[in-house]
Design a protein that fits this description.
By secondary structure, the chain is an alpha/beta fold. Helix content is 49%, strand content 14%. It folds into two domains: 128 residues, HAD superfamily/HAD-like (Rossmann fold, 3-Layer(aba) Sandwich); 66 residues, no CATH class.
């Protein structure tokens, strides 16, 4: 029986809906969009920041060095990089309304600035919008490491099979399923709320 609903953040409730901005930014520096995103998300600094070993600033400093950006251009670069992201308010509302019957949480691989960004920019607050917000940089471990799912279950006071988890990265979904968590692989265009309700109605 499902007792908790958990969403990933980036790629699920917060998605890049306008890729043209990153494409323009990439072209400015002679890169493909995929190359630019790889430099941002998969650098050694980004990986270290994801588990809290360095601050987010190190990620952008690394980008500045790779692209030869002057210090005053870093903030503009960051703003442009995230400018195409949009919050799926319907999913946020669904999760917030689900608190009446289920424990709810967000579980994200993210750098240290994400919690304040969620609250200040999107109004998403732990204990109000959702019961719990779990961030890899604060926990020191990231998906798909089984440790982070064990932490999640402990915080939710649930057995693995009582958790319904949604993530856009298949490797995170597979790792969750291997522990017994009921997991949905979110993909673009999916009617996620309908899919979740179908699962819940099978309880």
């Amino acid at each position: 029986m499902i007792k908790a609903i958990v969403f990933d953040i980036g790629g699920v409730i917060l998605r890049t809906e306008d890729p043209s901005i990153r494409k323009e930014l990439s072209q400015k520096y002679g890169l493909q969009r995929e190359e630019l995103e790889d430099r941002v998300f998969n650098s050694s600094a980004a990986q270290a920041s994801t588990i809290g070993q360095v601050r987010e600033e190190a990620v952008w400093q690394n980008i500045a060095e790779k692209l030869d950006l002057p210090p005053e251009a870093i903030e503009d670069f960051k703003d442009s990089f995230w400018a195409g992201d949009r919050l799926d308010q319907d999913l946020v509302d669904f999760l917030q309304n689900s608190r009446r019957e289920y424990a709810t949480a967000l579980l994200s691989n993210a750098w240290d600035g994400i919690r304040s960004q969620l609250e200040e920019k999107y109004g998403i607050k732990e204990g109000q919008t959702v019961d719990h917000i779990l961030i890899s940089s604060e926990l020191g471990v990231a998906k798909p490491d089984p440790k982070i799912y064990r932490i999640l279950a402990d915080i939710l006071l649930c057995e693995f099979q009582e958790i319904l988890f949604v993530d856009d990265f298949i490797e995170n979904v597979i790792a969750a399923r291997e522990l017994g968590i009921q997991a949905i692989h979110y993909q673009s265009g999916m009617n996620l709320i309908s899919k979740i309700n179908h699962r819940l109605n099978q309880n």
